[in-house]
Amino acid sequence: MKVIRQSLAALVTVAALATGMLVVTSLPSVAADTEMPIATTVAEHLAEAAKYDQEATELDAKAARHSQLAGQYAAHGGGKQVAAHRSIAKHCATLAKAYRAAAAEAREMAKMHRDMAKPA
To answer: Within a 10 A sphere around the Cβ of 51, how many other Cβ atoms?
Structure first.
């Protein structure tokens, strides 16, 4: 039961981070000292688009890895740990879905920045 609670807590945390629902509070000095101006020039929009494209690529890789793990845990049945394996497989599948959604959102943000870089 403790493992399930810990897995659930980790899942909620990662899903919230992946979807941008949590604000980073562990680095207040960085957040307070860093000015985040909006992109206004073509070059700045293209640079932002590249950042979002890179983020999408990284999130896709995480999704693929968790999908792979979900399959491995689902196939690793039998014995006393079958319930734990199923739970972990479900956890990994849920993470993969959240990472895929976050990657899609990052690709959309990249597209918006590329569109803003085009002449009016």
So the answer is: 14
Give the predicted TM-score (pTM) of the model.
0.68
Residue pair 118/67 in contact by the 8 Å Cβ criterion: no
| Max avg pLDDT among 9-13, 20-24, 90-94 | 90-94
Sign of the alpha-carbon dihedral angle for 51, 106, 5, 71: negative
Closest CA to 8 of 93, 87, 102: 87
Cα separation, 52 vs 109, whole angstroms: 7
Q: What band does 19 get if pLDDT is binned at 50, 70 and 90?
A: low
Helical packing angle, 82-117 and 2-18, nearest 10°: 10
DSSP H stretches of helix in 19-81? 28-33, 42-75
The residues spanned by each domain of the chain are: 2-117
Asked if residue 74 lies in contact with residue 85, where contact means CB atoms within 8 angstroms, the answer is yes
